[in-house]
């Protein structure tokens, strides 16, 4: 059935046909024709204050729902303001469709007002992108965009549409299926690869599950639990995988990497086998690659064949959807264990000793000032593992990853690969829109908060009652930490000028409740009060100790063997040898 | 001296792509951002106007051919990639050069062109423009010999290649047609 309508109506009907229930955006000249049918659409449109907010909100929505997040902007600056969220989404494999208006097709290439070659700009960090100049191509492009964004290794897809294509009359026919001759993600793993992987697991005395964000993308947490308990090996979950395996599980050693736990980092270093599931040997995990897990063989399972062998040779490559891969591994491992099951007891005992010797921990400031880790710990304990936690980038993000307790997938949202400051407030808005039933807490640094705080106006006006805790140390804290440790305490351009702005007044001006917390005893009451407010956003300004650092730490470019312990654990260093 | 890299480092990729605007930019951008080296590149539509074939000679140093192929294949509009083994493929390239001549040596240059079966495309008072189609190695030799006379301008197309036909399969097909 086809119907005559404008290209703009065809776009909105295509989005409805793709199952879109919400989109985040901001109108402007070239996209104006689309905003007319949006006015009548059943799709909820959330008007942001800056297009970057629309992009990160789409990511927050996608990361907690597993669905494709949608953002929309106009040409030129509107489109270029989406560049950061698109790059962020590409790094973290976030399914996203971005719609942008483009100048009329006759003006393309003439440096017209608000013209930017957004397709050219975003080629390196979109999974695919389109420039549409003929209205009849709109439904097919939208259908393909959603299919590409959400299938295989998810990622962002941009659809740029010339203004005249939105204005012209066209026939709307939404394709029943899409056919892309060059795109056939391999979902079923090969039997031989599964057999080889199972055989290697049955031969290993010191295996570790190295679990990445792909497990969450594949919704494979249940399968992971079964396989992990079957094998009995320690599990480490990367920054992108927090929640995919419960923190409370006895096999869980924590997060590996630059600010990972000693046990998780060392388990990878000393393992004889890495069972790598949806992880990509990122430099923040491996440290100096040539010294990473030198005695380990590698099973590398991923939906993206290009990740396998990119940074680290894989002894057993397994390409496929992780849910199917892990499900196939379970009977294969059982069959191998029936012949030979290795004794992991000595390995597990040594890892448990590491965990007991080097727990995550911090010292409370002697002057009674507020410890940022304490704030995170109390927030997690009071609010519980059912809530959704969203972080920006920096010290507060790392403390959040360390001291928040995760037991469920889809409860943690952060900017992992790109490390985008300013991510958390808009991403939390998207998360709350995606899961209105959940309490959503954003934790932000005072540096990050000042980049995108204006989206709290969006949250107030659109009734999206998120909670934001600012760990306010008046510094660009992570940069300050590096300057203290690696640049001789020369604090160049990191002092944010203590006391300005007044975050409580700012919050109130944006329609939020603002709360200030200066001392440890005020922490719990403030969190409880914030949790009790559900009719507007809440901002809690936690004035924390300025010079606290994140530990453990593997310095950039250093070997994981040279992990820097918290000062209080230095005398225990010999256990690491 | 050959202008081509040593055979161990150079590989020919025949990349079948959907014939869409911007597809060459995607391929070029991928090579640029991942630090892969393109030695030469030729692109044109195939027998099916929906598809184009890009013949890329890649200079593989510091990165594996496997990784280049995998990353290329992630481009949605890349349909098929074949690595052509120089031993099992036929390669051709076109060469054009304008060579300075003082009149006295014009005969020598024309004789050289005749030996290589090159064509004289244009004749000027003090220059000749020649063209030669053939295997890249043959073109290398011709270029080297012309250098002694003084090359004013040189343009090569980059190689195009197709797999050599399997004689048995081909003869079977011919038989099939005949009967």
Record the SSE blueprint.
The complex is a heterodimer of chains A (577) and B (179).
Chain A: E1 3-6, H1 7-17, E2 22-25, H2 32-40, E3 44-47, H3 51-65, E4 69-73, H4 77-80, H5 83-91, E5 96-102, H6 118-122, E6 128-132, H7 138-150, E7 156-162, H8 163-167, E8 169-172, H9 191-202, E9 207-211, H10 214-217, H11 221-231, E10 235-237, E11 252-254, H12 262-270, E12 273-277, H13 283-286, E13 297-302, E14 316-319, H14 322-339, H15 345-357, H16 372-383, E15 388-391, H17 395-403, E16 412-413, H18 424-434, E17 440-445, H19 446-452, H20 455-461, E18 467-472, H21 477-486, H22 503-509, E19 513-517, H23 523-532, E20 538-543
Parallel strand pairs in A: 2-3, 2-4, 4-5, 5-7, 6-7, 9-10, 9-12, 10-11, 12-13, 13-14, 15-16, 15-17, 17-18, 18-20, 19-20
Antiparallel strand pairs in A: 1-8
Helix pairs in contact in A: 1-2, 1-7, 3-5, 3-18, 9-14, 11-14, 12-15, 16-17, 16-23
Chain B: E1 10-18, H1 23-33, E2 37-45, E3 51-59, H2 65-73, E4 78-84, E5 89-100, H3 106-116, E6 119-123, E7 127-134, H4 136-147, E8 151-156, E9 160-163, H5 167-178
Antiparallel strand pairs in B: 1-3, 1-4, 2-3, 5-7, 5-8, 5-9, 6-7
Helix pairs in contact in B: 3-4
């Amino acid at each position: 059935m086809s119907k005559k309508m404008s290209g703009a109506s065809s776009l909105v009907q295509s989005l409805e046909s793709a199952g879109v229930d919400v989109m985040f955006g901001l109108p402007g000249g070239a996209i104006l024709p689309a905003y007319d049918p949006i006015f009548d659409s059943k799709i909820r449109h959330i008007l942001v204050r800056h297009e970057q907010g629309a992009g990160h909100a789409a990511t927050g929505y996608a990361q907690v729902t597993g669905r494709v997040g949608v953002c929309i902007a106009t040409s030129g600056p509107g489109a270029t303001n989406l560049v950061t969220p698109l790059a962020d989404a590409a790094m973290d494999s976030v399914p996203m469709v971005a719609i942008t208006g483009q100048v009329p097709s006759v003006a393309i290439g003439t440096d017209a007002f608000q013209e930017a070659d957004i397709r050219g700009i975003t080629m390196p960090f979109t999974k695919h992108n389109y420039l549409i100049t003929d209205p009849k191509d709109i439904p097919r492009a939208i259908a393909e965009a959603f299919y590409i964004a959400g299938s295989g290794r998810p990622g962002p897809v941009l659809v740029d549409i010339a203004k005249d294509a939105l204005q012209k009359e066209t026939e709307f026919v939404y394709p029943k299926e899409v056919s892309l001759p060059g795109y056939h993600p391999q979902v079923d793993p090969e039997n031989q690869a599964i057999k080889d992987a199972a055989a290697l697991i049955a031969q290993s005395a010191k295996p570790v599950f190295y679990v990445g964000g792909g497990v969450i993308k594949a919704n494979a947490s249940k399968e992971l639990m079964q396989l992990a308990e079957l094998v009995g090996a320690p599990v480490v979950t990367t920054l992108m995988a927090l929640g995919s395996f419960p923190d409370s599980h006895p096999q869980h050693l924590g997060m590996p990497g630059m600010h990972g736990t000693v046990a998780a980092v060392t388990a990878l270093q000393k393992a004889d086998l890495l069972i790598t599931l949806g992880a990509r040997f990122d430099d923040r995990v491996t440290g100096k690659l040539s010294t990473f897990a030198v005695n380990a063989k590698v099973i590398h399972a991923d939906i993206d064949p290009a990740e396998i062998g990119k940074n680290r040779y894989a002894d057993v490559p397994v390409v496929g959807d992780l849910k199917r891969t892990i499900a196939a591994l379970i009977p294969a491992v059982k069959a191998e264990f029936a012949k030979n099951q290795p004794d992991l007891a000595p390995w597990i005992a040594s890892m448990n000793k590491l965990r007991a010797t080097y727990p995550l921990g911090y010292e409370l400031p002697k002057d009674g000032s507020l410890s940022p880790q304490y704030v995170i710990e109390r927030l997690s304990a009071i609010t519980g593992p059912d809530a959704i936690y969203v972080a920006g980038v920096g010290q507060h993000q790392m403390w959040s990853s360390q001291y928040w307790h995760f037991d469920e997938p889809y409860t943690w949202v952060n900017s992992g690969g790109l490390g985008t400051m300013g991510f958390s407030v808009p991403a939390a808005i998207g998360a709350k829109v995606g899961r209105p039933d959940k309490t959503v807490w954003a934790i932000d640094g005072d540096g990050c908060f000042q980049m995108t705080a204006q989206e709290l106006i969006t949250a107030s006006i659109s009734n999206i009652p998120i909670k934001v805790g600012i760990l306010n140390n008046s510094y660009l804290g992570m940069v300050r930490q590096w300057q203290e440790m690696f640049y001789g305490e020369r604090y160049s351009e990191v002092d944010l000028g203590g006391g300005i702005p007044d975050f409580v007044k700012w919050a109130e001006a944006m329609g939020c409740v603002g709360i200030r917390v200066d001392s440890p005893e005020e922490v719990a009451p403030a969190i409880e009060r914030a949790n009790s407010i559900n009719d507007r956003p809440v901002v809690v300004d936690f004035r924390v100790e300025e010079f606290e650092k994140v530990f453990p730490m593997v310095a950039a470019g250093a070997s994981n063997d040279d992990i820097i312990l918290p000062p209080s654990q230095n005398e225990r260093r010999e256990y690491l040898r | 001296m050959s202008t081509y890299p040593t055979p161990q480092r150079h590989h020919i990729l025949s990349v079948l792509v959907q014939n869409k605007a911007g597809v060459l930019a995607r391929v070029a951008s991928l090579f640029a951002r991942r630090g892969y080296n393109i030695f030469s590149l030729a692109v044109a539509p195939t027998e099916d106007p929906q598809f184009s074939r890009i013949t890329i000679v890649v200079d593989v140093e510091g990165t594996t051919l496997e990784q280049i192929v995998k990353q290329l294949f992630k481009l949605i509009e890349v349909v098929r990639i074949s690595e052509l083994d120089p031993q099992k493929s036929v390669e051709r390239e076109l060469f054009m050069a304008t060579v300075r001549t003082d009149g006295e040596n014009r005969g020598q240059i024309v004789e050289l062109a005749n030996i290589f079966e090159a064509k004289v495309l244009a004749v000027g008072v003090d220059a000749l423009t020649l063209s030669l189609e053939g295997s890249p190695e043959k073109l290398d030799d011709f270029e080297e010999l012309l250098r002694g006379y003084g090359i004013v301008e040189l343009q090569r197309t980059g190689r195009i290649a197709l797999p050599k036909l399997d004689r048995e399969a081909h003869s079977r097909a011919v038989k099939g047609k005949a009967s």
